[in-house]
Amino acid sequence: MHDMIRKTLATAALALLAAPMTYAIESAPAANAAAAVSATTAPTTRPALSTTPGVLKIDEYRETDLWGRIRSGYAIPDLDNQLVARHTKGYSARPDSLKRISGRASLYLYHVVQELEKRGMPTELALLPVIESAFNPQALSTASAAGLWQFVPGTGKDYDLKQNMFKDERRGVLASTDAALSYLQRLYTMFGDWQLALAAYNWGEGNVQKAIKKNQALGKPTDFESLADLMPAETRNYVPKLQAVKNIIANPAQYNVALPAIDNQPYFTAVDKTSDIDLAVAAQLAEMSLDEFKALNPQFNKPVITGGEKTKILLPKENAEKFHLNLAQWGRELSTWTTHKITGARVSIASLASKFGTTPEIIRQANNIPAKSTIKAGSTILVPKVSAGNAGDIAENIIDNAVVAFEAERTPRVKASVSRYKAKAGGPSKNRISRNTSSKRKQR
User: Which of 13, 300, 409, 421 has a CA between 20 and 30 Å from the CA of residue 321?
Assistant: First the structure.
């Protein structure tokens, strides 16, 4: 079925792809990797994408629907086994779930496809966040992997994704996509095979290398399916899941999936930010709800966006125009937040709130302070600005180095009155004191 579709794309029926589709879906740096993709994996039944980064042949397609554009760039060899069949059936049996994923994907997918084409990479890799995060940039795994592409903290640092008190770039659309594609390119260069590169993305390159060496020592093949029995269940199912999504995208009607199309045009544009600005103010200037703003800018952890000229915010094009117009007429301070370092132990949230003219609830919410917890000495927290003296932006060294730590609140201990245990004769009864004290220990 896939070969037939690709042959159609490569011949006279390319014009069909210019018409809007009625179906859609929801649910590592190396300069020579792009050339290798085309040389070793691109099917000969479709026009090859340019292998030179930055030089595209998308004029050949002129898709009006983004799913058609993705489909025309498939380049990873198909996998066909029982796991693929099972996952294809599973995804297609949940059209409501696919529709929700599609709604989230519509914000980010054009950018991902564009970046893949710039690098000459297979466009079905744009579907990988369906498997990783269901296109939810706030997704967080039990292993602390975060964002659309599910980077763990260590790998995020390896690819220069900043993770500090104010932002986590593993969740940022631009930074995390660039890092994920660089990582995938590196893995493809290492293994020369996209299926093994994907397995390594999920399992780690070291584990895949060990599995290859084990099969080589036994004289066995080292392709993905031959190594699958050596992989954990999650990795064994990882590539089949991607293939299942590919199958549905290739022909949604075949699987009785009817989903809204995603326009083949940018959803957002990047706006440079030159000073601190509250999230709520930025959303107001862009005439967006706070939830809409956060969906495009999920990397910001606090109610204030810091970072000066290095930081960009993403806005739909029409909202970016509104943002600039409203900003020019704002005439007020853009940020109402600053930082405060806790120098003494046992500082109560209530006393901090009183000092900065706010409520304990606002202090807790701004700093994600758990219930029944207080802040440890040495922590830096976010507080409202209360004077002109702290009207400036938060310093870069604070942004990079600020930490906050919590500890459980201590309940005051009240000493029992010995007089209650005095015997009628007037003297203390040592035995009664001992028994009652023991009983209270057990109750605590």
Answer: 300
Same domain, 225 and 278: no
| Residue 391 pLDDT class (50, 70, 90 cuts) | confident
Single-letter amino acid, residue 111: H
Q: Is 63 among the catalytic positions? A: no
Cα(419)–Cα(416) distance, integer angstroms: 9
Higher-confidence residue of 14 and 152: namely 152
Same domain, 232 and 343: no
CA 179/CA 151 separation, integer angstroms: 9
Which tokens belong to 410?
Answer: 């201590």
Q: What is the pLDDT of residues 45-104, one digit of tens each?
A: 333 333 333 334 444 446 689 999 999 999 999 999 999 999 999 999 999 999 999 999
Angle of CA points 286, 290, 292, to nearest 5°: 75
Residue 116 has pLDDT above 60, yes or no: yes
CA distances from 301 to 109, 166, 272 (A): 23, 5, 19
- What is the arithmetic mean of pLDDT over 180-205? 98
Q: Could you say which of 132, 205, 234, 321 is catalytic?
A: 132
Q: Residue 170: CB partners within 8 Å, gap ≥ 6?
A: 146, 147, 149, 151, 153, 156, 161, 163, 176, 299
Burial of 128 (0-12, 13-18, 19+ CB in 10 A): buried
SS3 content of the chain, % helix, strand, coil (to 5): 50, 10, 40
Token code pair at residue 248:
């549905």
Distances (CA, A) of 56 to 30, 67, 116, 243, 252: 18, 18, 11, 25, 27
pTM: 0.79
Residue reference for tokens 């956060």: 294
CB 258 within 8 A of CB 26: no
Residues 38 and 118 in one domain: yes
Domain extent for 384? 337-408
pLDDT at 52: 37
Q: What domain count does the chain have?
A: 3
Hey, what amino acid is at 356?
F
Residue 400 resides in a domain: yes
